[in-house]
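Illustration: EVI5-like protein.
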Amino acid sequence: VPELNVHFRSQSFHTSMYASSWFLTIFLTTFSLPLATRIVDIFMYEGLEIVFRIGISILQFNQAELVQLDMEGMSQHFQKVIPQQFDSCPDKLILRAYQVKYNPKRMRKLEKEYTTIKNKEMEEQIEIKRLRTENRLLKQRIETLEKESAALADRLIQGQVTRAQEAEDNYVIKRELAVARQQFNTASEKLEEAQNSIQELQANRCDHRCTQEFVLQLKTELEQSRLKEAETLIGLKAMQDKVLEIEKKNSSLPDENNLAQLQEELKGMNLRESEAVNSLKELHQQVKDLDEHWQKHLARTGGRWKDSPRKNSAVNELHDELMSVRLREAQAQAEMRELRHRVLELDTQNQVKSNLLTRTEQACTGLQDKLQYTTAQNKGLQTQLSEIKRKQAEVECKNKEEIMVVRLREADSMAAIAELRQRIADLEIQREEGRIQGQLNNCDSNQYIRELKDQIAELKAEIRLFKGQRPFETSMSFDGIHIVNHMVEDDESIHSSDEDLLPSPMVVSGLQETLYPLQHGHANFLQGMEMSGKDSEGNTDSDPEDRNSALELDAELANHILCHDSPNKATSLSTTV
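Result:
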């Protein structure tokens, strides 16, 4: 369909604007469902050729209308008119599709040409992208090189400034050192002179008083000179410290070799830049010369072509060839200089990269050394930590053992103290028993019993007087004495009546048998008390001193009896008595 193709190109109506949906959806979005399913069935049986045939038949059927429309009208025609053309007679479209004739070899050839054109376009696009990326990378490299060159220049300037400052500081310090040394030399000379004068004066002792005053003056001068010498020494040490600090600063600054390398790189960059500028100027001059020759050539050949073009045709051709040769030569020279400039740039980049590699290798080696050092240090610290933990565990075990030993010793000491206290209590009881037995053996038992009876009678009379009762007119016998058994009921001792204080002989004998197994002397003593009480019931006359001694003896006896049971029983019994 050549006419339709020409019309489509004139309207810039591309094939993808109307035929893309045909091949993508196999007319499912273009025709109705029955026609589209029929086309799909043929496509499944015959392949993609039916899609091409139906598209060609649609274009041939609508050629007359499409040629008369513009681009917008054609797009609307394809969207609204063509989908409804073959709804009534789908067989017509199929017949037209099978009636389309074309040369398959030519179609294959066109397909190959189309694929080659597309591949070339893709390659060109890839090449363009590659060139753009290379251009961008080159621009980035140029920017980085410019930044590096600026940084190097700044570093060089800073290094020169710092070195100048350090040189000034060194010069000032050297001057101060020279002044200090001079002062030290003058002070040492004065000291030597003073020592010489002292020696001379000691040699020539003519006048004792004058010599003493002179010696004192010389001593003061010598002390002053020593002080000055000490001050000069302190200043000299301070200057030496300053020199050491400046030397450390110099060592921390970059090496002269690195600065020399950076200066050489900067000089090389400047030389290359100057060469590139010179070559650019030469190219501009050559271009100007060629323009001038071209203008002259045009001015010469313009009149000749008007006058006699046949005669001067050979000369004009020669001039044209000469100008073309010169132009080619200029182009070749320009390309050659561009290549040289690029080679120089690549050399500079190579040098910069090699310097960077060396620096990075040095940094890597330094970092590896630091890593090895730190690993070794960590290993040492780990070993120290493990040793410290082990020692700590040993110390803890020793502490636990010592604590256990101390606790055992404390328990043993507590047991020993308890045993010693028990022995002390036994010894005290034995001592009291012996003392009481001695007292009982020394005194008369009958007299003591009479005194006790008198005292008891007096106490009963006093108690009855306190309670508002009448005192006994007759004396009571010893058989009516009752001693409270506090070993059984401690609380009843306070609330007992006065009559409970009168004991019976059975209670006394029960107390003797149950509370404390008395010795033979004590038992006889109690029996004697009972018998004497029965024999002499009416005797109550005694002196106050005898009564007091009897009361004291009675209290000691009660304490002695109750010491073997408990302190509470002893106190209760003594209180009751």
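Reading the tokens back as a structure: The mean pLDDT is 73.
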